[in-house]
Amino acid sequence: MKAKYEPPLIVRHSLAGVNKLGSIPAIRPMSSIDGVRIEELVVAYGSPLFVFSENTLRERVRELRGELGRRFASFDLGWSYKTNYLSAVCRVFHQEGSLAEVVSGMELRKALAAGVAGQQIIFNGPAKTAADLTLAFEKRVQVHIDHLDELALAETVAEGLGIVPEVGIRVSQSDLPVPTWDRFGFHLESGRAIEAARRIVRSGRLGLRSLHGHIGTFIPNPDAYRMAALAMTRFARQIESELGARITTIDLGGGFASHNTLHAQYLPGEEATPSFSEYVEAIASGLEEGLDGAETPRLVLETGRALVDDAGVLVATVLGNKRLADKRRAVIVDAGVNILPTAWWYRHDVRPAQEILGTAEPTVFFGPLCMAIDVVRDRVMFPPLRVGDRVVIRHVGAYNVTQWMQFISERPNVVMVSPKGQHAIIRKAETLETLLLQEQMPAWL
Ligand SMILES: Cc1ncc(COP(=O)(O)O)c(C=O)c1O
């Protein structure tokens, strides 16, 4: 085959890849996942393709459980369904002992349908309906109340069922080194949280047993957790001494950073993200200080992205190359932001799936959408790619296969690779037929 001619181009040497430590990130190909060749997967299941490593899922959750086990006699992890509720992914976490953490009626019913017992489900979220609460109370789900109207509704539902369910309240905090998420829960410092606790205990129609807080997401600062744990523990003790209600569970939600790199972040996530042990130590020291010798409650964490991001990659195929007006090399791949919304948050690590030769130069990866916003990775040092080459976009396990959009094209296959090298589809690609099934034509047309 005749080699394709590309006119020579002088590219100014760029220091864009140098970080504080002086290293230019090496472009290491990633040609297999847990021993299975990426090319084999693409031939079997098509491109683009999400691939999840069962091994990495288990390793991550075992590492966090191990750290918690070293510091806490009683703890639970609640798998945050909205982070990734593909049934196979949830099953791995449930097999590893995680509860289900759900934030909608749909997620609640999904967990129940998967066989998770009601007592093993935590129900958060700001929009629970009477039907959701009825189902939750009947199944003895651990409900966390978000606001006063929901509290009134929960009391009415409980009364209707003739039971006094044990619940928790979601608490938001301001005195933390992270932006305040006071749109969820009852605010601590302004006194809303203690008012809600008084209301629950005095009316006696619900039992107050747990406090829940989720201070934000992708928080690379373990000290924020120490401070949150300290404030929550002190609040639990205030409730006990003032109202006589014993708080048996403190749930600190999720929010640990994954190994991704935020757009505004300086060091790459793989160097900057704190370890699980740093987060757990911070929480343990906050709790210890707040308890001041009192009995330690059960600790719950709802860690999402930090458990699943590393386990997922998106494989894409090069469709074409072009030079932009500013001479940057642009590569068009077949995976866009419709299936990778986290590209708006992160500078995802992109690797070739095969050895590539040539000089690395600043490259932008565009997706296939006919929309200017479809930038998968802006400005990354990359050698030239040919049409048909594969690239692997890393750390995409969280929030993509739940927040993706069916826009312009069908959503692709998602597969899982087992530790023994087996692989199978865990979510089938959509087809035009799948999409048309949802549509209806009005009779007058
Ligand atoms: C209540 C609650 N718990 C857990 C999570 C998981 O958070 P993350 O993926 O940041 O760990 C979320 C996500 O926003 C949440 O809202």
Key features of this structure:
TIM Barrel, alpha/beta, 445 residues, Lyase, Ornithine Decarboxylase, Chain A, domain 1, binds pyridoxal-5'-phosphate
Task: Describe what this molecule looks like in 3D.
The protein has 13 helices and 20 strands. With 445 residues, it is of the alpha/beta class. The chain folds into 2 domains: 32-52 and 312-436, Lyase, Ornithine Decarboxylase, Chain A, domain 1 (Beta Barrel); 124-303, TIM Barrel. Helix 4 (105-113) links the parallel strand 5 (99-102) and strand 6 (121-123). It is globular. The protein binds pyridoxal-5'-phosphate. Pyridoxal-5'-phosphate (PLP) binds next to helix 11.
Q: Layout of SSEs?
A:
Blueprint: E1 32-33, E2 36-37, H1 38-45, E3 49-53, H2 54-71, E4 75-80, H3 87-95, E5 99-102, H4 105-113, E6 121-123, H5 130-138, E7 142-145, H6 148-161, E8 166-172, E9 186-187, H7 192-203, E10 207-212, H8 222-243, E11 249-251, H9 269-272, H10 276-291, E12 298-301, H11 305-308, E13 312-323, E14 329-333, E15 350-352, E16 361-366, E17 375-382, E18 390-393, H12 400-403, E19 414-417, E20 423-427, H13 432-437
Parallel strand pairs: 3-19, 4-5, 4-12, 5-6, 6-7, 7-8, 8-9, 8-10, 10-11, 11-12, 14-16
Antiparallel strand pairs: 1-2, 3-13, 13-14, 13-18, 15-18, 16-17, 19-20
Helix pairs in contact: 2-10, 5-6, 8-10
Bound molecules: pyridoxal-5'-phosphate (PLP).
